[in-house]
Amino acid sequence: MSPAPSSLDSARAVDPSRYGAPGSTPRTALRPASREEVAEALRAATRDGLRVIPFGGPPDPSLAADLPPYDLALDLSALDRVVEYEPEDLTLTAECGVTLETLRATLAARGQELPLESPGGGRTTLGGTLAANASGPRRLRLGAPRDRILGARFVLGDGTEARTGGKVVKNVAGYALHRMLCGSRGGLAILIEASLKLSPRPERRAALVYSATADQLGDRARWAEFPRLEPAVLTVLGGEAARLPLPGLKDARFAVALGFEDDAAWVEKLVARATGRLGAPAAECGGAEAESLWQTLADRGEPAVPRLTFASAHNTPAALAPVLDSAAGKGFVFHAPAGRLHLFLAGGEAQATVERLATHGFTLVAARGAGDLAPVLPPQQAVLALRARIRAELDPGRRFALGERWERGGP
């Protein structure tokens, strides 16, 4: 029984050892050059009973070690064209193997941006960003991938090609399956092409970075005004993550990055109000340097250690006061406006940490490299049943190896 279609074997085969961990690699790996070839590969996988995981390129070894057993790696990095770009409409359609770095360069030339800072230094692909519903410190202000996607082409587990949504903001055709695929992590279908809404680049960016103490972070009055200022960025970093390559922060235990984006006059006023409340920052930058800092803050949320991700309704640094001891481990990154906490573990403490943070309003939404975790909240049976129905419709043959994690509500 052939593990993959012979017509693709010779032309598109790549080294399968690059897509797994030592001692656990797929049987074969392919790098299709078109959506038709992706569909062909999945039809063959269905025929041969192969389990499939899509990639935007060879994964980091630390990520590969956390993958379930599977047979076929599909590398989508060759699908990297910008299909259609309409600057006047602030929309773009691109294949999902294109990197965020490439899109940034394309859009910057027209004074526009796709405001998503997916971890990976811009080398992350569009498809990987959408599949993870990944975004960085500006998530609340400018939206996550499922807020930006207008439509998509995708391929189901049996090789069926499908499309939902459209290419313009006012298009409401069909069910919004493309939004549901954001966050499915390649467990329901393979995203091939996506249409997205863009944003104008702001007239001015300003970043203020502070070294902080535990008492300053826990001072509710100190931070009470900031939700009203609507900062684009208000990120707290602790432990190893706090050691940013900026003056006065190399030995910091905690750091706070505060950022504003808007017209120049309004940013000036916001900076004045922030410094009036917090004092002079340890470091200050703007423009491209601030944009680079936003990406750094996103990257600090993705280290090669076990990680837990929590959601919270609390939206200021003061929310961390009761959990700073729990966050000691290897550090943390807290994007306060969005209530998103990435917590890094030293090992063997995941379950106790989840239970402790739950008592302070932090709900576990994802885990990596932390083993099996017992749920803290009562299972949402209706939600889990709905996930099972959705997966049965989109991937009845259970072709996608990451589908089980999505179905049971895992990362």
What is the gist of this entry?
The protein is α+β, with helices and mostly antiparallel strands.
Question: What is the element layout, followed by pairings?
Answer:
Elements: H1 6-12, E1 13-14, E2 28-30, H2 35-48, E3 52-55, H3 61-64, E4 72-75, E5 82-86, E6 91-95, H4 100-108, E7 112-113, H5 126-132, H6 139-142, H7 145-148, E8 149-155, E9 161-165, H8 177-181, E10 190-197, E11 199-200, E12 204-212, H9 214-217, H10 220-223, H11 226-229, E13 233-239, E14 254-262, H12 264-278, E15 283-286, H13 287-299, E16 307-312, E17 331-335, E18 340-344, H14 350-358, E19 362-368, H15 381-394, H16 403-407
Parallel strand pairs: 2-4, 3-4
Antiparallel strand pairs: 1-2, 5-6, 6-10, 7-11, 8-9, 8-10, 12-14, 12-15, 13-14, 13-17, 16-18, 16-19, 17-18
Q: What labels would you give this structure?
A:
globular; 8-stranded antiparallel beta sheet; Vanillyl-alcohol Oxidase, Chain A, domain 3; 16 helices; 411 residues; Uridine Diphospho-n-acetylenolpyruvylglucosamine Reductase, domain 3; 3 domains
What does this structure look like?
It is built from 16 helices and 19 strands. With 411 residues, the chain is an alpha+beta fold. It has three domains: 6-75; 82-201, Uridine Diphospho-n-acetylenolpyruvylglucosamine Reductase, domain 3 (2-Layer Sandwich); 204-368, Vanillyl-alcohol Oxidase, Chain A, domain 3. The strands form four sheets. An eight-stranded antiparallel β-sheet has the order 15-12-14-13-17-18-16-19, with helices on both faces. Strands 5-6-10-8-9 form a five-stranded antiparallel β-sheet. It is globular and about 65 Å long. The mean pLDDT is 88.
